[in-house]
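This follows on from our talk about sequence and fold. Please put the record directly below this note.
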Amino acid sequence: MRLNAIGRDFGSTKALENISLEVRPGEFVCIVGASGSGKSTLLSLIAGLDAPSTGTITVDGARVHGPGPERGLVFQTGALFPWKTVGENVAFGLRLLRLNRAERRDRVAWYLAEVGLRGLEGRLPKELSGGQRQRVAIARALVCEPSVLLLDEPFGALDCQTKDDMQVFLRQVWKDTGTTILMVTHDVEEAVFLAQRVIVLTTKPGRIAAELDVDLPGHRDLLLKREPDFLKIRAEVDDLVRAHM
């Protein structure tokens, strides 16, 4: 996926300016920045929900002109259909693909097992915890097997313990599926724990201030957050965010 000189103006206000970025296949990248840095605006542009004022976005060599099945998107709230069951929510996107009933059933079952929700196919979203609802949203985004999974503050509304658990879960899903992930978050600790590379944005307008490779073990558990190497990178990213507010 490539972003070339992306800008987004809202009237006389520049939200984003000259954003150029390449995300390699299978890479996990997090974008961080203070409020007003345009993180969610940038993700909306990549998702095709909005159009850039300047520049181009390409995924798999094709220019983005709107939403498409090659890009899965998960919001902070999950945005599940409350009247549909877990299985029906996950299967929703498959209507765009040429799959027979058995193929759809098998794919839904695999991704529900992958996110730890086997046996909950018949439940409604209101019967699930917040973390479970986000797992459904992630399964729904992955079931079409997109080239890129876009995550917009997906754990921002969860309590601290559930958020930690979901971070470990997401790392495992990424390793199992090999999906390219681009995630925006205001949580520096979360970004450092999850990503292979962290992009720091300035504010008003949002520009790329820094790119940092996260030189930490591939296998990560919550104890890593107490390690000196982790704390050093976290402090470095936190200082960069504060310096460019």
